[in-house]
């Protein structure tokens, strides 16, 4: 495939090729920045328009929408504390506090550089190591996936600010919500109480938008007054200086690696990578005490990881025909519609097309820097609107975005109830991040556990005795769970 890169570049550097990359990247950032749209909706919206295009431009257009929307979600997450995409939920934790301090431009600068580095690194990995990485992903069966999700659930401990007990309650609530609907193995309805609308379960996008966006609208609306109606100040992205990266490069590299590895594993996704990376940074970073208060290391961890997933997720999608996440599942349909069969022979049978896809993906991530600076400036007029009007606009965008996914009015009810529920919980000091983590990881945790039990004839101990990868992941998860306890007792003894 590397030998076909010169020929692939001749296809990209044409008027049509550059137009597609430019339009797709710009449009992806805009759609990602709009609360309620999300990457999956953005890609699905553009998919019908690719049917009149040839193979390479069509796939590159969706890749640009994909990568641009993942980055674009950080804009609304930082400026209005509303993640434009579920992948940007972790970005709110430190991005918005920075914006409240008057550092919105600097926060977006950190997020932009981290996103570009994460995306470019994943593109390089794809170009030079896609076949080997695809082969490694085959080693992860249900048991290894279950151990990975256990490791991911340790994020709940790290993101439970104020009260670990409340964070754990919110996390278990998210796990419970993920079990509502049809049983993944038997199809039997669970916790539906006779309501056929619940057979498909709760729409994750509707819940995420509800507990983050609508609850934020309700909290702001309850506090609006003439004396306190200030919006965050933003006049453009401010890129961090080289001196400010001192001590942060190691965390950036670690987060990029986490994003790439998780992206390669089928069925995990950018939201999982962002939370796991954020939790690891909060555990190991020298500035961990400032996390949640507007710490750039938190932004670097979440944004570099979720953008690194975009490239990693393409490995199982292209090489194995297994979607790395929901967005690449939509892209599988595009490949099929354009006469390309995803699978183990894709790279050998279509070397020029694959080289064009990976080279174009590299260029797309380069474009995130200049186009991100342009699009983020367009968000400034929105912030100058009176807060009451902006809250109405956010609510309308969330409503349209959630309804557009499936056209199901029941999703709007779920969003509204999630918003009210999130508002009540947040007023009582419950963090919302653990709830989302539980919902994101719950389905994969359940199905991998039950498949693993079938493989081992019901022996849970066999998960870790005959599967070294699962055993290593379980040990890491155990260490990450015990470290906060050890740290707590050490600080307690030090005070004594």
From TrEMBL:
Keywords carried by this UniProt record: Membrane, Transmembrane, Transmembrane helix
TM helices/strands, residue ranges: 20-47, 59-80, 107-130, 136-157, 164-182, 194-214, 256-279, 352-376, 388-404, 410-425, 432-449, 469-489
Domain of life of the source: Bacteria
Domain DUF112: 19-437
Keyword set includes Membrane: yes
Segment forming the signal sequence: none
Pfam families cross-referenced by the UniProt entry: TctA
PANTHER family on file: TRICARBOXYLIC TRANSPORT PROTEIN (PTHR35342:SF5)
UniProt protein name: Putative tricarboxylic transport membrane protein
Organism: Yoonia sediminilitoris
């Amino acid at each position: 495939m590397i030998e076909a890169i010169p020929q692939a570049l001749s296809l990209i550097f044409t008027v049509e090729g550059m137009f597609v990359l430019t339009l797709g990247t710009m449009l992806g950032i805009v759609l990602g920045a709009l609360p309620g749209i999300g990457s999956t909706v953005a890609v699905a919206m553009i998919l019908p328009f690719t049917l009149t295009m040839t193979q390479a431009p069509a796939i590159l257009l969706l890749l640009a929408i994909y990568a641009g929307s993942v980055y674009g979600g950080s804009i609304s997450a930082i400026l209005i504390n509303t993640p434009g995409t579920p992948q940007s939920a972790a970005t709110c934790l430190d991005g918005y506090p920075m914006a409240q301090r008057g550092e919105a431009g600097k926060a977006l600068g950190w997020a932009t550089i981290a996103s570009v580095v994460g995306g470019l690194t994943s593109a390089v990995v794809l170009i030079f190591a896609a076949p080997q990485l695809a082969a490694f992903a085959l080693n992860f069966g249900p048991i290894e996936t279950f151990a990975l999700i256990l490791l991911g659930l340790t994020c709940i401990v790290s993101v439970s600010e104020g009260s670990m007990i409340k964070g754990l309650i919110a996390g278990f609530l998210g796990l419970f919500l993920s079990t509502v609907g049809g049983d993944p193995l038997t199809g039997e309805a669970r916790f539906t109480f006779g309501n056929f609308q619940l057979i498909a379960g709760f729409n994750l996008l509707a819940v995420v938008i509800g507990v983050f966006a609508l609850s934020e609208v309700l909290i702001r609306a309850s506090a609006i007054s003439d004396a306190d109606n200030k919006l965050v100040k933003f006049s453009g992205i401010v890129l961090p200086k080289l001196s400010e990266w001192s001590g942060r490069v190691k965390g950036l590299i670690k987060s990029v690696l986490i994003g790439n590895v998780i992206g390669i594993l089928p069925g995990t996704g950018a939201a999982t990578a962002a939370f796991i990376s954020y939790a690891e940074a909060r555990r190991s970073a020298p500035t961990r005490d400032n996390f949640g208060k507007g710490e750039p290391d938190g932004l670097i961890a979440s944004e570099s990881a979720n953008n690194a997933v975009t490239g990693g997720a393409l490995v199982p999608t292209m090489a194995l025909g297994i979607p790395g996440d929901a967005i690449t599942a939509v892209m599988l349909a595009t490949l099929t519609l354009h006469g390309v069969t995803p699978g183990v022979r894709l790279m050998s049978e279509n070397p020029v097309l694959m080289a064009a896809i990976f080279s174009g993906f590299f260029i797309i991530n380069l474009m995130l820097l200049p186009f991100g600076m342009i699009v983020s400036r367009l968000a400034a007029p929105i912030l100058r609107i009176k807060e009451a009007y902006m809250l109405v606009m956010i609510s309308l965008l969330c409503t349209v975005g959630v309804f557009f996914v499936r056209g199901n009015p029941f999703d709007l009810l779920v969003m509204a109830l999630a918003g009210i529920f999130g508002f009540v919980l947040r007023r009582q000091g419950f963090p919302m991040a653990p709830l989302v983590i539980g919902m994101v990881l719950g389905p994969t945790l359940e199905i991998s556990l039950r498949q693993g039990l079938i493989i081992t004839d019901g022996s849970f101990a066999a998960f870790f005795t005959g599967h070294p990868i699962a055993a290593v992941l379980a040990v890491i998860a155990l260490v990450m769970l015990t470290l906060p306890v050890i740290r707590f007792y050490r600080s307690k003894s030090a005070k004594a």
